[in-house]
Design goal:
Helix content: 40-55%
Strand content: 15-25%
Shape: globular
Structural class: alpha/beta
Distance between the termini: 71 Å
C-alpha cells in the first residue's frame, strides 16, 4: 500500500469512529449536551497552570502566567456564552413569518489548530462542535502535538466518567500534510485556525470551511482622549503572551501634538522606546529576515528580542517601541510582529491616522481588528465606517477582548473570521452557530396580503 492510500485508511479510521460516536451523541438531550460542553471547559479551567507550562515547554513561545490567565479566561467566557442557549431540536417559531427553526448537527468537524494557541483553540472548537451535537477531529500544529494531545486526553477522561460516547473528540497522533489534507477533505466541515497555507488548504478541501486571516491590530488614540488611560492597556495587549496573539495590538497611532507625551507614558509603564536609527535597524533585523518573520524572535520575551538585536534594554521592559519609518507598504514594522514590539506613528488629524491604519492593514491584517481609544461617538463611527476590519474594540485591550470578553458583545472564541477582506467565509467571531445546520418549517400563511402592482411598482 502506498503512502497516500495508507494515509487515507488512517484518516478513514478516525472518521468512522467519529461518525459512530456522533450518531449516539445526537440522540442526547440539550441538558446532556450542555453538560459535555461545560465539562470540556472545566478541564482547561481546572488544569490551567499545568497545561500552560506544558504549552510553553513544548512550543518555546509565550509565557506561563499569560497562558494560565488565557486558559482560565477563555474556558470561563466561552462556557458563559454557551450555557442556556438552545442548540438542539426546535429553536424557536416566528409567529409573524410562520417559520419554525430546527437545529441539526453538521456531523464530523475537522479542526486545524495552531501552536500559538495549542490549548484553548482545541478547547473552544470542541465546545462549539459538541454544543451542536457534532463530533470533532483535531489536527494540531506539529510544534504543539504533545500539549494539544494531552488537553484532548484530559477532556476525554472526564467525558468518559460521565458516560458519553467514546471518540466524540479525537486528535491525530500522526502528523503529516497528507493526513491533514485527507482529514479536511473527508470531514463534513473544516475549521482552520493558523497560517495562511493551512487556511487556504481548508478552503480548497471541497468541504465547507471556516478560516481566519492574519492579525495586525491597529491601535488609534483619538485626539483629546486621556492617553494615560490608553497606554497601559496598549502595553498589556502588546506584551500579552509575548506578542503571539493575533488580536494583540501591533501599532500605536498617536495625535502628533501628544506624541512625545505618549512616548513618555510608554516609558513610565514599562515601554522601552528605541531612540537611535542604528538600534531601530537592529530591531527590524531581529524581527524580520528577507521581509519574513525571524522564527527565533516569535513569541520571545523583550529581553530575548533585545539580545537578538544586539541592544540593551532595562530589565523590567514589557514592550519595545519603535517609530516606524513608513507604513507597512514601505516598512515591515508596519506589518504583523510576532513578538512584544509595537510600531509607533503620529498623525496631524484623524483622517491621516485612519489612513496610516489602512495602509498597515493592506500589508497584513485586513479584515481582522482595530482598537480605538476615544470618547467621541462621532469619531468611533467614522473609524468604523472607514476601515475594513471585522471588529472594532473601543477603549479596551484588544488582545483580551477582540476574541470576546465579559465586557463586550463579541462572541467568545479563539477563531476570528476576517471576511472577504482576509479571504475568509465569515466576518465575525466563530461561534457554535457556525457548526449547526438549521431546518426551517415554512407554514402557509393565508392571512398574508399580496400587494397590488401599484403598491409594488407605483
Amino acid at each position: 500500500m502506498d503512502e497516500k492510500a495508507m494515509s487515507q485508511e488512517y484518516i478513514n479510521g478516525y472518521i468512522e469512529r467519529a461518525r459512530k460516536a456522533q450518531a449516539e451523541f445526537e440522540k442526547m438531550s440539550q441538558e446532556q449536551v450542555d453538560l459535555a460542553v461545560k465539562t470540556i471547559g472545566k478541564v482547561v479551567y481546572d488544569n490551567a497552570e499545568y497545561l500552560a507550562e506544558l504549552a510553553v515547554e513544548e512550543t518555546g513561545m509565550g509565557n506561563v502566567p499569560d497562558k494560565i490567565a488565557k486558559n482560565k479566561q477563555k474556558a470561563g467566557i466561552v462556557w458563559n456564552n454557551l450555557k442556556g442557549k438552545k442548540s438542539r431540536g426546535i429553536l424557536d417559531t416566528d409567529e409573524t413569518t410562520g417559520i419554525t427553526r430546527v437545529a441539526k448537527p453538521i456531523g464530523v468537524v475537522a479542526a486545524i489548530t495552531p501552536c500559538t494557541n495549542p490549548i484553548v483553540t482545541p478547547m473552544s472548537n470542541a465546545m462549539f462542535a459538541l454544543k451542536c451535537g457534532n463530533a470533532i477531529i483535531i489536527t494540531p500544529h506539529h510544534k504543539s502535538q504533545k500539549c494539544s494531545t494531552k488537553t484532548v486526553e484530559m477532556m476525554n477522561a472526564e467525558l468518559a466518567k460521565l458516560g458519553y460516547p467514546e471518540n466524540l473528540i479525537q486528535i491525530l497522533d500522526q502528523h503529516s500534510r497528507e493526513n491533514t489534507r485527507n482529514l479536511i477533505s473527508t470531514a463534513d466541515i473544516v475549521i482552520a485556525t493558523g497560517g495562511a497555507g493551512m487556511v487556504n488548504a481548508a478552503y480548497s478541501s471541497g468541504r465547507p470551511a471556516l478560516g481566519v486571516g492574519a492579525g495586525n491590530v491597529q491601535c488609534i488614540i483619538d485626539e483629546g482622549y486621556d492617553y494615560k488611560e490608553a497606554v497601559p492597556k496598549i502595553i498589556a495587549g502588546r506584551a500579552y503572551d509575548y506578542g503571539i496573539i493575533c488580536s494583540g495590538e501591533q501599532s500605536v497611532i498617536c495625535p502628533e501634538k501628544d506624541y512625545d507625551a505618549i512616548m513618555e507614558e510608554f516609558k513610565a509603564n514599562g515601554g522601552y522606546v528605541v531612540s537611535s536609527q542604528e538600534d531601530l535597524e537592529k530591531v527590524r533585523g531581529a524581527l524580520f529576515q528577507d521581509g519574513k518573520p525571524n522564527r527565533h524572535s516569535v513569541g520571545q520575551s523583550p529581553e530575548k528580542v533585545a539580545e537578538l538585536a544586539g541592544i540593551e534594554i532595562p530589565a523590567d521592559t514589557k514592550v519595545i517601541v519603535v517609530e516606524a519609518e513608513g507604513t507597512g507598504l514601505t516598512d515591515v514594522l508596519g506589518g504583523e510582529k510576532m513578538a512584544p514590539v509595537i510600531a509607533a506613528y503620529k498623525y496631524k488629524n484623524l483622517d491621516e491616522g485612519i489612513n496610516i491604519a489602512r495602509e498597515n492593514l493592506e500589508k497584513d491584517g485586513k479584515g481582522h481588528s482595530v482598537a480605538f481609544h476615544s470618547d467621541s461617538e462621532e469619531h468611533i463611527e467614522k473609524v468604523g465606517l472607514e476601515l475594513c476590519v471585522s471588529r472594532f474594540v473601543i477603549n479596551q485591550m484588544s488582545a483580551a477582548s477582540a476574541g470576546g470578553s465579559y465586557f463586550n458583545g463579541l462572541a467568545p472564541t479563539n477563531t476570528l473570521g476576517c471576511g472577504s477582506w482576509g479571504h475568509n467565509s465569515i466576518s465575525e467571531n466563530l461561534d457554535y452557530k457556525h457548526l449547526m445546520n438549521v431546518s426551517r418549517i415554512a407554514r402557509f400563511m393565508p392571512n398574508n396580503r399580496k400587494p397590488s402592482d401599484e403598491e409594488l411598482w407605483g
